[in-house]
Amino acid sequence: MGPLRGGEAGEGDGDRWAAKRRRCHARETRYATVVTIQAILAEVETLPADERRRLAAFLVSLRHKDLADYRARMAERIDDKSPENWVTLEELEQRLDS
After folding, report:
1. Domain boundaries of the chain, sorted by first residue
2. Would you say the C-alpha torsion 4, 9, 12, 17 has a positive or negative sign?
3. Which of 7, 18, 30, 49 is the most buried (most CB within 10 A)?
4. Cβ neighbours of 10 (radius 10 Å)
């Protein structure tokens, strides 16, 4: 069996892989771009009201997730039965003052 020629099975495989590499590179470049918060805010201002509502709902869901994680960590600390992990009232006051 010799090398593949036009019209044989596998024709265009090199072109297909080259196109895939170009798409991957373009995607990596797009995600590597740094976006400032100012640019995001400017873009949000241009969104229609329904899209802004969807964005707001998404941000609220992220906040609730963060709060749930925080609550879980605090519950673990409150339920800690090991006195060596406890803080005295004086130590707490010192930490709050610093």
Report:
1. 13-97
2. negative
3. 18
4. 10
